[in-house]
Write a structure and sequence with these properties.
Elements lengths: L10 H6 L2 H17 L8 E2 H8 L10 H26 L3 E4 L3 E4 L2 H29 L7 H34 L11 H6 L4
Antiparallel strand pairs: 1-3, 2-3
Helix pairs in contact: 2-3, 2-4, 5-6
């Protein structure tokens, strides 16, 4: 594989982003969190996880190929880290967009999975319905057109059931106050204190 790389690519860095090395770094970061779990509202930043895990940094400046390789390595790192933490602690590392992660409580993990699971299933089902609806009836035989209508009917029933469960889950968990946005640093306070 290394023989196909351009001459300006650091081969040692490239190889350090192999699947096994990324998994080792993610395991290191997961072990640090598992051994001393933060409270539910604490923010775990991406740079902290990468540093604790010993994940190599992307070269600066980086070629497009290096950026793609690094982006894939990061996705694998966070997917493996997230799975290890969830399996070990029973707490889901929920993404806080632009900031990092928060470890949900076990109770909030169930709420998050229920709400996101129903919503995700409806999206997939909606995409399948769109595809079936996009096929012109004149491209199908009478029997195939009937099968398509039957599929749409079944999917419609399932979609309604998923929507009902999604609404029920949102009401159940939001009424108890379990699904919340984590508290983030107050940016205006940081600016007022002269820190920018």
């Amino acid at each position: 594989m290394a023989k196909n790389l351009p001459a300006d690519v650091d081969i040692e860095w490239w190889l350090s982003l192999g699947a096994e090395n990324v998994r080792i770094c993610a395991d290191r970061a997961a072990t640090a969190i598992i051994s001393d779990p933060p409270p539910p509202s604490a923010l775990i930043t991406r740079p902290d996880l990468l540093r604790v895990g010993g994940m190599p940094e992307c070269p600066d400046p980086a070629t497009e190929r290096e950026q793609k390789r690094y982006s894939l390595a990061l996705r694998n790192f966070f997917a493996h880290w997230r799975g290890r933490v969830l399996e070990s602690l029973g707490r889901f590392p929920k993404t806080v967009t632009g900031h990092g992660f928060e470890l949900l409580t076990s109770e909030d993990t169930v709420a998050n999975a229920a709400i996101d699971g129903y919503r995700g299933a409806r999206r997939v089902l909606g995409a399948a319905q769109f595809v079936i609806n996009s096929v012109p009836a004149e491209n199908l035989t009478t029997e195939q057109a009937q099968q398509a209508r039957d599929e749409l009917t079944r999917m419609g029933r399932l979609s309604l059931e998923l929507e009902t469960n999604h609404i029920r889950a949102r009401k159940t968990y939001q009424l108890t106050g379990r699904v919340e946005t984590p508290s983030l640093p107050n940016r205006s306070r940081l600016i007022d204190d002269g820190e920018e």
